[in-house]
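Async update (no meeting this week)

Hi team, since we skipped the sync, here's where things stand on the single-chain job. The sequence we agreed to prioritize is pasted below, unchanged from the tracker. I ran it this morning and attached the output directly underneath so nobody has to dig for it. Comments welcome in thread, and please keep replies under the output.
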Amino acid sequence: MSTVVHVEGSQRGARSPASAVPARMTAVVQHVYGTTDTLAVEQVEVPSLEPREVLLRVRAAAVNPADRAILQGLPYVLRLVYGIPRPRTGIRGSDVAGVVEAVGVAVTQFGAGDEVFGWCQGAFAEYAATTETSLAAKPAALSFEQAAAVPMAGITALQALRDQAGLEAGQRVLVNGASGGVGTFAVQVAKAMGAEVTGVCSTRNVELVRTIGADHVIDYTHEDFTRSAGRYDVILDNVGNHTLAECRRALTPTGVLIPNSMAGNRWFGSIGRVLTALVTSPFVRQNLRPFFSIPKKTDLLVLVDLLEAGRITPVIDSTHPLGDAPAAIAHLGGGHARGKIVLTV
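Output:
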């Protein structure tokens, strides 16, 4: 374990001579857009620190749909953000859990040896740098793998149900894609908020969705929830396999539909679906509320409280060593992961 390193001054790259942190590290690097075959395991420089940043020794990093989207450069319109003609940032991964190795001179919340989790840029590596406001102390009862599975999926589920839906105790919630990364958190968050929860999943995941707290489970291979008699106050659609009009059939007259799927064409992705929802919503009593989750430390701390109270538990589909990141991303792309896929470092 290295000692705490304070970075003097405001220039990136300053580091105490006493630092035990190596100059280079192993990382999974993307140089061009393409398939998982374009990823390479390489030796690169360890990130340097700004005054308010923390350097983590990465212990685990979760794989998210955004990692696959940026790898492929899809939808094409978002290359305006990712980078043209190649990604601006070569190391994928945002959800991270690890041990603090070094801190910038202005960091006050953490010190060397602290076990933390949160988000960063470039988690698929041995080390990653991020701001102290992007991290929280890891609950002692959670493994690093479990902790890494929480940030993006957990915050998305929380913000969708609490902020977009305004979910209240006693309301009926349907989670389409209940066995996926966001879905497994959404089922548990909705139950923690006092809702009656119905999860939609495939046959092999029915028992899993029941186990995490769903009151009812619909096996989509046998039943189409948009054609059933059930009506819901809130529908969180993580799949996008039904049109907005079809989903609205399953809502109460004043219900809330939250489209949360990246499904769409190669040029614009789900943007067309989002625009349709925004244009339609003012003309119907039901509320169509597409959104983009924004990571906030306050929401991460809400999840910490739920984790420590045992009200939510991360569901891990599989773990892979860092060098198997291409296989892990390919597995996610298959669309049948149960919970989260995590890299161990």
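Quick observations from my side:
The radius of gyration is 21 Å.
DSSP finds ten helices and 16 strands in the chain.
Reply here if anything looks off.
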